[in-house]
Write a structure and sequence with these properties.
Length: about 180
Amino acid sequence: MHVKLNQNGHTLIELLVAMSITGLICAGAFAMMISSMSCFDGTSTQTYTDIDAVMAMQMIVNDVREAKSINIIANGKRLRVIFPVKLSEGYYDRHQADMANQIDYYLSDETGVPGHSGNWLWRGKNNNNRTPLKRNVNSLEFEQDTSRSVKITVTTLENSASGPKTTSLTQRVVYLRNY
């Protein structure tokens, strides 16, 4: 009786070729994943930086539009907003300035003390009752455009794995409604 053995199998060369192909596919997929993560990091960081700049700008613009007058101090690094007097009915008396409720916008450190250097945007009421609005604000500049308008520039900076991301936003002319 003659027994035939089944000798179907894989040779060492076939296994090495299969492992090499699998390794190349895995390396390509890993490279694509790393590239996607880096792209996501850079894009999301830029988005957060853009949002911070827009939100900081909008907070300042809202107060400036309601102002009776503004004063740019500290060589354009600080803005004092003076509102009109608010009547008991909730309306503004546009003829009188409310000197007791002035608002200052400026950059400082985490303490909020005016004159300290830092990247925190603060909104302060007569240097008291300071409220931090945003962090990572790299630069804040105010420039008088006309007696009724101001040019505001806010620059935010955020670091990511792919490097620092910066947004510089300028509101060219903000008019005071209660001038």
